[in-house]
Amino acid sequence: MGNEKAENLIFRKSIFCIKTQSKKIATPNVIAEKCNGVLFGNTTIKSFIFSTDMALIENNDADAVLAVYPFSPSQKIMKSLIDFSEKPVICGVGGGLTQGKVSLEMALVAEGLGAAAIIVNQPFQNNHIEAIKRKINIPIISSVSLKELSFKDRVNAGVDIFHVTGGPNTASIIEHINFAVPCFPIIATGGKTIENIQTSIRSGADAIVLTPPSSGELFKSIMSQYRSGINKLKNTVNLF
């Protein structure tokens, strides 16, 4: 378990190249070079940062923010992120915990605050998507993690974009969507390697979602470097 966690952290640090001079967390070049992008209004988006951490949002070069969290949707969080971010924000409004009237209300709030789109999770019911579609004009994104879903029914309900979060099955789910609803916009969550991202793009992903290392993880790396530097000074100059 410890080795797996360490390997995942190393990957996420390598995927997001830390630019020490500009203090930016840079997305992999392959995304900008190979992705077609998804159109939100007049803006083509190829990369998303999956975070609600304002420090990480401020210091990264992704095209947009995916603001989803494992709690009920919050108007305060939506407003804070949209007001703060100088890029499009996609707001989560429902899934397994929240559906129906509450999700509809949050979708209307998100649109009113200036969200670029809303996103619902796989358990969200199609009739609730239909109800939201009748009330808002911004795109509706549906997260999916299994092939066993009627993608055509989802599209007929009003979904505009699919977000594939299938882990090791992501590429095959993308291919399945391309067969079920050809030429439909697809966003895919980045995997554990650059090769995973490239496979998703080759399979038909138009944009990639990346999860950055947390502030705590970044600090741990930085402090390790500081301690290493001090140890070198102690060994060389014998200051203490």
Question: Can you offer a commentary on this structure?
Answer:
The chain is α/β, with parallel strands linked by helices. It has one domain: Aldolase class I (TIM Barrel), CATH 3.20.20.70. The chain contains ten helices and twelve strands. An eight-stranded parallel beta barrel has the order 5-6-7-8-9-10-11-12, surrounded by four helices. It has a two-stranded antiparallel ribbon with strand order 1-2. The protein is globular. The N terminus and C terminus are likely disordered. InterPro entries: Aldolase_TIM.
Name its key features.
10 helices, alpha/beta, Hydrolase, globular, 12 strands, TIM Barrel, 240 residues, Aldolase_TIM, two-stranded antiparallel sheet, eight-stranded parallel beta barrel
Task: Indicate the topology.
Elements: H1 2-15, E1 17-19, E2 24-26, H2 29-34, E3 38-40, E4 43-45, E5 47-50, H3 54-58, E6 64-67, H4 75-84, E7 89-94, H5 100-113, E8 117-120, H6 126-133, E9 140-144, H7 151-157, E10 161-164, H8 170-180, E11 186-189, H9 194-203, E12 207-210, H10 215-237
Parallel strand pairs: 5-6, 5-12, 6-7, 7-8, 8-9, 9-10, 10-11, 11-12
Antiparallel strand pairs: 1-2, 3-4
Helix pairs in contact: 4-5, 6-7, 8-9
Text of the CATH class: Alpha Beta
**Which structural class matches the secondary elements?**
alpha/beta
Number of domains: 1
Mean pLDDT, all residues: 86
Q: Note the total helix count.
A: 10
The best one-word shape is globular
What about the largest sheet? 8 strands, parallel, barrel
